[in-house]
Sequence to fold (312 residues):
Amino acid sequence: MPRKIIIDTDPGQDDAVAILLALASPEDLDVIGITTVAGNVPLHLTSRNARVVCEVAGKLDVPVFAGCDAPLQRKLVTAEHVHGKTGLDGIELPDPKMPLREQHGVDFIIETLRREPSGTVTLCPIGPLTNIASAFLKAPDIRSRVREIVLMGGAYFEVGNITPAAEFNIYVDPEAADIVFKSGAQITVMSLDITHKALVTHARVSAFEALGTRVGRAVAGWTHFFERFDVTKYGSKGAPLHDPTVIAYLIQPELFSGRHINVEIERQGEFTCGMTVADWWRVSDRAPNAMWMGSIADDGFFDLLTERLARL
Ligand code: RIB
Ligand code: CA
Fold:
């Protein structure tokens, strides 16, 4: 029985690859909806991009809902320096034909969690957590109905990517992240500690290109484009492919391992705002509230990704 998921996203090239991996895996995942959030680029672009990706995959029946256009309390911070001005730079793609759904993304999340049997819907936030927190604030009853939240965000051993202390998704909306991490829902975290071990090397980009398909060319173009920021910054062998790790975990959890620990969100620090204070060594007496992943079988991850993308 495929697992019902809602992908909450701010595409972003890595978000795009995550969405494609999910849409290429119908035996594992039933994508009942995609909700967009402001993050890498403003909401009108993330909402365009999510539909562009569905059309690249040939999956025009996936409902896409626009969510929040700004963080709960703070001014929006975007990341065009990483993702380009469209958020999907790297390959030219036409504007989408499929429409956005009328309903607000937050209301779609609430309605879906109230309609589906409790414990059957997994939330997959791969951008700032504004939509998820807004849904939990508007409808506290849904918190206990979520099967699991598997999110990309945060960092501990790898520290920050948007500031020295904070990872982008958490930094954009730390108040939202705090609400989610205190919600009582079962949370699994794919932080930079994982994604910085999932680097898109030239060989891996070539494997995408070798698919010889529209999807292979798009993924190669996107991953090639957004590696330039990381290679300049980290001198790495390639860009970390952040968001698809969330989807890969749902398909092959054995690729990952981690610890159930306490994670708090710093919201006051002059230099540390947005930091995920992950008690990996359990030195505090704070109750564990998240499964924090620490290792990934990166070859297995890219083998899974390339094999599934070949299906589209
Ligand atoms: O820090 C990486 C995260 O920020 C990824 O989700 C990327 O898409 C951006 O949203
Ligand atoms: Ca993202």
